[in-house]
Amino acid sequence: MVLKHRLCGGKQRARSESDKALREQQILNAAEGLFLEHRFHGLTLADVARETGVTKAALYRYFRSKELLFIAVYRRAMSDWVSEVEAAGPAGFPEQFVDQILAHPVFCGLTAILHIALETGLSEDEAREFKLFLLTQTRRISAIIGAATGQEEAACQRYLMQCQQALIGTWHMCHPPEPARKAMQKEPLTVFQLEFSDTLRQHLGILTEAFIS
Asked: Which of 8, 38, 54, 125 would be 42's cystine partner, CB 3.0–4.6 Å?
């Protein structure tokens, strides 16, 4: 806990804008690991506050709900991935596309539970704002894919949605709850063990080949 206090300035309130920005990033850093470790329903804001070294009241000044905290973490993870795809440009598709996804495990894991996080806890305006963010990001990716393949934006959007569906299903099959994971370590259930990177690569390879052809 001493280390957390030193990183976050202890439980004192962040007053300057730079201090507030730093504290927010530290909260997001702590939260992204916790969301993956405890999944969504198993995590509370008290867990995040304890991990970050701030009071729960201080955490509420930044994020009033677990859903809004999740969205902030997800926005950062997705923006990082989109920026990497854009940096590679059309020349990176399709050869680098799967590697670019797998290079962002936080984005993969959060995408897999995105539908759960958005079930409750958001107002209509908050949900709309986040969906507009997703639309903007997917359009950025669609522009790259369209430039590489000559496909129209609508076709690129459908392809990206299929990739998302494959990612979600693959993540959950490869990251089962702990009791199931332990059960599958023993014969004859080892046949159900799947490695995420290889499995997703196979699925997206099939989708991409069909999309291009």
From this structure: 38
Cα(48)–Cα(33) distance, rounded to whole angstroms? 10
Q: Which DSSP letter does residue 39 get?
A: T
At residue 6, the pLDDT reads: 33
User: What is the band of 202 on the pLDDT scale with cuts at 50, 70, 90?
Assistant: very high
Tokens read off for 49: 């506050």
Cβ atoms < 10 Å from Cβ of 148: 18
Give the closest residue to 159 by CA, choosing from 64, 167, 24. Answer: 167
Res 190: pLDDT: 96
Q: Judge whether 118 and 104 are in contact, CB under 8 Å.
A: no
* 165: CB partners within 8 A, 6+ apart: none
Q: What is the pTM of this model?
A: 0.86
